[in-house]
UniProtKB/TrEMBL annotation:
<comment type="function">
    <text>Catalyzes the reduction of 1-pyrroline-5-carboxylate (PCA) to L-proline.</text>
</comment>
<feature type="binding site">
    <location>
        <begin position="81"/>
        <end position="84"/>
    </location>
    <ligand>
        <name>NADP(+)</name>
    </ligand>
</feature>
<dbReference type="GO" id="GO:0004735">
    <property type="term" value="F:pyrroline-5-carboxylate reductase activity"/>
</dbReference>
<comment type="pathway">
    <text>Amino-acid biosynthesis; L-proline biosynthesis; L-proline from L-glutamate 5-semialdehyde: step 1/1.</text>
</comment>
<feature type="domain" description="Pyrroline-5-carboxylate reductase dimerisation">
    <location>
        <begin position="173"/>
        <end position="276"/>
    </location>
</feature>
<keyword id="KW-0028">Amino-acid biosynthesis</keyword>
<dbReference type="InterPro" id="IPR036291">
    <property type="entry name" value="NAD(P)-bd_dom_sf"/>
</dbReference>
<comment type="similarity">
    <text>Belongs to the pyrroline-5-carboxylate reductase family.</text>
</comment>
<feature type="binding site">
    <location>
        <position position="68"/>
    </location>
    <ligand>
        <name>NADPH</name>
    </ligand>
</feature>
<keyword id="KW-0560">Oxidoreductase</keyword>
<dbReference type="InterPro" id="IPR028939">
    <property type="entry name" value="P5C_Rdtase_cat_N"/>
</dbReference>
<dbReference type="InterPro" id="IPR008927">
    <property type="entry name" value="6-PGluconate_DH-like_C_sf"/>
</dbReference>
<dbReference type="InterPro" id="IPR000304">
    <property type="entry name" value="Pyrroline-COOH_reductase"/>
</dbReference>
<dbReference type="InterPro" id="IPR029036">
    <property type="entry name" value="P5CR_dimer"/>
</dbReference>
<dbReference type="GO" id="GO:0005737">
    <property type="term" value="C:cytoplasm"/>
</dbReference>
<dbReference type="Pfam" id="PF03807">
    <property type="entry name" value="F420_oxidored"/>
</dbReference>
<dbReference type="Pfam" id="PF14748">
    <property type="entry name" value="P5CR_dimer"/>
</dbReference>
Length: 287
């Protein structure tokens, strides 16, 4: 499927060279989907960051204002990967350089296809995505939505790219903010949970390196159990929980502290925040 897409011969430009751009670029390179020399990464002012990316991956890098234009014009695929607050200005700046055969792939939380069309024009094929940073190691989870202008071939390319760095789900654009709340922000919830587990392990007297090994393997093993056994988290939890045993005591204590409600509330808030961010960009465009 990958050779059919012709992706290996394409040029990919990351406009915005931060954490998410690096996670995707690193994943694509690591999975050998595309050679580093076919990837360019641009940012606004942080020259050290570009130098670091060039040294680390061998990607082409250049500072805003020099020969950025060439990379942007030559790219078959342009990833928009700046923070939402910078998006309207950054996208407006490149709109005059774009031609309608270039595929725009946005990873920007909250930013709608309609807003991007306002900034770029109606004919540009646009993909709105919500990936996550686990793409770095090929274990990402990405929500994908297409504008009408995206061709079947461009869809193949998009899905091949995101499949090479994890799994993806094509969703109606109205669900993209839900994807933010679930898997876009998701890795941070798990890290937050692990931080708490590590703290408690220390309080219980375990040395940091031993605590880390035990916590990481526990999280990894639990996720893998859900994936490989096909059993639900609830069923698997029951199997750990002996009547009147240690796990029951822990779960009762966590429930009393409102852990489940706190997680649900936090996820809904992430999704709501994505909508707020999108609305703020929309307002700034229409001002
Ligand atoms: N981090 C995550 O887990 C995820 C992030 N996202 C989305 O990815 C996007 C980027 O987030 P993240 O990677 O964390 O952000 P970072 O702050 O790490 O990176 C942002 C990058 O954008 C660059 N930039 C800002 N303005 C411009 C401009 N005008 N022209 C060119 N480059 C510019 C910055 O350059 P400089 O440093 O020089 O200013 C920087 O390289 C966000 O919109 C976010 O919603 C989506 C899913 C997950
Ligand atoms: O925190 C954020 O806004 C971005 C979007 C999803 C994950 N990180």
């Amino acid at each position: 499927m990958l050779t059919e897409t012709g992706i290996a011969s394409m040029q990919i430009c990351f406009y915005g060279a931060g954490s998410m751009a690096e996670a995707i670029a690193r994943g694509l390179i690591h999975e050998k989907l595309i050679a580093p020399g076919k990837i360019s990464m641009l940012n606004r002012s942080n020259a050290d960051r570009l130098h670091e990316l060039h040294e680390r991956y061998g990607v082409q890098t250049v500072l805003q204002g020099s020969s950025n234009e060439r990379y942007l014009r030559e790219a078959d695929i342009i990833f928009l990967a700046m923070k939402p607050k910078d998006a309207a200005e950054a996208v407006s700046a490149i709109a005059p350089l774009l031609s309608p055969n270039q595929l725009i792939v946005s990873v920007i939380a909250g930013l709608s296809i309609a807003s991007l069309q306002q900034l770029i024009g109606p004919v540009q094929p646009i993909v709105r995505t919500m990936p996550n940073t686990s793409s770095t190691i090929g274990l990402g989870a990405t929500g994908i939505s297409y504008s009408e202008q995206v061709t079947p071939q461009q869809r193949l390319v998009t899905e091949a790219m995101f499949q090479s760095i994890g799994i993806n789900a094509v969703v109606d654009e109205s669900l993209q903010n839900a994807v933010v709340g679930v898997s876009g922000s998701g890795p941070a919830y798990v890290y937050f949970f692990m931080e708490a587990m590590l703290k408690a392990a220390g309080d219980l007297g375990l040395a940091p390196d031993i605590a880390k090994d035990l916590v990481v393997q526990t999280v990894l093993g639990a996720a893998q159990m859900v994936k490989e056994t096909g059993e639900s988290p609830e069923e698997l939890r029951r199997k750990v929980t002996s009547p009147n045993g240690t796990t029951q005591a822990a779960i009762e204590s966590m429930t009393q502290a409102g852990l489940q409600e706190a997680i649900i509330k936090g996820m809904l808030r992430s999704s709501e925040r994505a909508a707020e961010i999108g609305a703020a960009i929309e307002r700034s465009i229409n001002e």
